[in-house]
What we know:
CATH superfamily of the largest domain: Aldolase class I
Strand order of the largest sheet: 5-6-7-8-1-9-10
Number of domains: 2
CATH topology of the largest domain: TIM Barrel
Mean pLDDT: 92
Shape: globular
Strand content: 5-15%
Number of strands: 10
Distance between the termini: 43 Å
Order of helices and strands: HHHEEHEHEHHHHEHEHHEHHEHEE
Radius of gyration: 20 Å
CATH class of the largest domain: Alpha Beta
Largest sheet: 7 strands, mixed
Bound molecules: ligand V47, iron/sulfur cluster
CATH architecture of the largest domain: Alpha-Beta Barrel
Amino acid sequence: MPAAPQVSFDRIHDPVLRRIGERIAAGERLDRADGLALYRSGDLTGLGVLADAANRAKHGDVVTFASNQHINPTNICVLRKTCVFCGYARLPKEDGAYRYTLDQVLGEAAHAADGMTREFHIVGGLDMKAGLAYYTEMFRALKANFPHVHIKALTAVEIAHIARIEKMPWRDVLIALKDAGLDTMPGGGAETFSAAVRERISDKKLAGAEYIGVHRTAHELGIRTNCTMLYGHVETLDDRLEHLQMLRDLQDETGGFLAYIPLAYHPDDNELGRELGRQGTATTGWDDLRQLAVGRLFLDNFQHVKSHWIMVTPSLSQVALHYGVNDLEGTVVREKIYHAVGAHTPQAMSLDAILGLIRGAGKVPAERDSFYRILRRDFAPEPVPAGAA
Ligand code: V47
Ligand code: SF4
């Protein structure tokens, strides 16, 4: 049982936040009205103080990262026309459509031969020609060639797609994939669960309750998963809280979620961004920080809150380490999904760069595995800058 958060009330100016802070310090759980008050507060620093206290009670000063590699085996997707926020998907005959052969996947994975990569993060489109056998063969070959690398693959939406084309229940698909080497599942495909928002931005996608259902089944089978929320598009603050509530409820039930990762919507190069006239205007730093902080406070039964630096920039992720975040998306190699919608961040970060970010925020870096077990803390000390005494 983690210690109750120690809150420094002198840095909180909003009396509403102070009252919520007193309840957090007493170990009380927040309800949706509290969540709304947190989102609506103008005291971002005070919100950070609360989220940082909750985070420190679980992790102290330690910030983790993992060396992972993203592989996106196919961008062909049957929802290409209806997920209006996505700039990555293509129809089978469209320019730029691709589906990797097994050899191509192994070619991409060859980076893992460096011995540093500990996780493959494998997600892609809902491709009619990528059924169960496509993935079971892929996972078996990856495990045969890179036995030390963890496979975190396939969102709930992809699992449901494979189940539909194979006419199998989700459970049987998950059992077959686990048998082939699937270790954990990523959290993509959640978007925002609200039915009204889904109708507007991803009309034909698996409903929120079904996303939860696939994750519940995975947890029952011993497959731990992550979860996400896509924010900063057309959703309301109430929608965000409904989403967080559904995640918290499932976590109460199964305890199977490893981490919560909010994903900042990028409006470039996608239909929704054009419709909203929002190109070139991603989420604000304020919204990114409060989204992470409210997640940390509301999801009191989650151990890990991860910032995805690819979307919100490394600099903002560094500040987020004081807003409830205890984990940074790893040294990602060749990320495609966000770079298709206008992310201008680098596609990979070196170990030294990640260590520099974490230390620069006054935190202690630790490399973790995919289950958040600490693997390494003994990194070379930070070089002393030239001219320093
Ligand atoms: O589900 C698509 C999002 C997700 C856009 O579990 C967009 O460890 C912003 O889920 N703007 C896939 N986001 C990525 C994902 C993820 C990333 C890092 C770590 C983990 C994990 C999961 O990307 C999709 C969708 O929500 N996405 N288009 C866009 N325009
Ligand atoms: Fe397909 Fe996923 Fe893009 Fe939707 S978000 S079009 S399901 S790849």
